[in-house]
Specification:
It contains ten helices and 14 strands. It has 356 residues and is an alpha/beta fold. Helix 4 links the parallel strand 8 and strand 9.
Length: 356
């Protein structure tokens, strides 16, 4: 009878320190395979396998696509690849980002739960926002064991706290306790009988993570239209419900939690505001240049008209700048009719939503 021999771990900010400590507490004869997703930039080389090799007895490496799963090894998600689990093999995929990340935690947890059910142990460590929460729901639904680093000791508590809000976890442990707990669970026999079958939603999302065209081309999308657009591709987002958890996914598979979607929208809003500021400043500079040339030619009336356009553009630019600075707009210059100037639109206390 197998033990909990599939251990999946997700981390983000502060995760290198947490993972280095955790792997040092794992025994060299661990009868389980360990899979790790750490949010890393898409470009460049990840040094995480080398770091984990220095801190623990288990060999760590970026796996090849289709590599056989063996106990006593640590499989680390490569940059710009989702780490997925099939029956007896590990996959690396350039499938859609989830919560703005590739590699993302949720696809690893979801595919592990789909194949191995009760044998899976899901672990969430330090990180911001909430990647991993939906994946941990899948682990719990399929009878796996759920472990979360104590948010009080995590360098960044966002991911642990979000998971605790989404799942009634089995264990909330400090880093010093997680390694021994995993070693014990790996040797604890697991009943083979499954806890429920895979849901249609789990199958669909796992297929999307594996970049299956059939999941993209189907006209039967899970969830209901949300009215929101996907920040990655602009497509319509469908709203998905798993218990109390709400998520969003587009036709081609980009997935978002509410927190990650809000953070991405805040970034898109800031980009739009910077674009508007640049355009307004360029418009003012051009109007000034035209006004000066007209003035030199003695066409004073036309020159004054362009000077007014430059002034209005700079007023609008000042408002955009105040929004970017997070400064409330409370002092609005009235126009000649005593109303709020057209550049303000009557807006008060305008703030740019903060990102995470």
């Amino acid at each position: 009878m197998p033990g909990h021999d599939i251990i999946v771990i997700g981390a983000s900010a502060g995760g290198v320190e947490a993972l280095s400590r955790l792997v040092g507490d794992l025994p060299a004869d661990l009868p389980a395979a360990v899979f790790v997703v750490l949010h890393v930039p898409a470009h460049g080389h990840s040094l995480l396998p080398e770091i984990l090799n220095r801190h623990g007895p288990l060999p760590a490496a970026h796996p090849d696509d289709g590599e056989e799963i063996k106990p006593g090894r640590i499989y680390v998600a490569p940059p710009d690849r989702n780490l997925l689990i099939e029956d007896g093999r590990v996959r690396t995929s350039r499938g859609p980002r989830e919560n703005g990340h590739r590699p993302a935690v949720d696809p690893l947890f979801r595919t592990a739960a789909r194949v191995y059910g009760r044998r899976v142990v899901g672990v969430i460590l330090s990180g911001t926002l909430d990647d991993g929460s939906a994946g941990m729901v899948a682990v719990q639904e399929r009878g796996g064991v759920t472990v979360v680093q104590d948010p009080a000791e995590a360098i960044f508590s966002g991911m642990p706290r979000s998971t605790l809000e989404a799942v009634q976890v089995d264990h909330i442990l400090s880093l010093t306790e997680i390694g021994p707990a995993l070693a014990r669970l790996a040797r604890e026999p697991v009943a083979e009988d499954p806890v429920g079958g895979n849901t249609d939603l789990m199958e669909c999302e796992a297929d999307m993570a594996e970049f299956e065209l059939s999941a993209i081309e189907t006209d039967h999308h899970p969830g209901t239209p949300s009215g929101f657009g996907c920040p990655d591709c602009g497509g319509a987002l469908w709203e998905l419900h798993e218990g109390e958890m709400v998520r969003f996914r587009c036709r081609v598979g980009h997935a978002w939690s509410p927190g990650s979607l809000l953070a991405q929208q805040a970034e898109a809003l800031e980009t739009a505001l910077w674009t508007a500021l640049r355009a307004l400043e360029e418009r003012a500079a051009l109007a000034d240049r035209v006004a000066e040339r007209l003035k030199r030619r003695g066409n004073l009336l036309s020159s004054q008209r362009f000077q007014e356009q430059a002034r209005e553009s700079r007023q609008r630019a000042a408002l955009v700048q105040r929004v970017l600075n997070g400064t409330p707009q409370t002092d609005v210059e009235p126009d000649s009719n005593g109303n709020n100037s057209p550049d303000s639109g009557g807006v008060r206390d305008v703030h740019l939503p903060p990102g995470d």
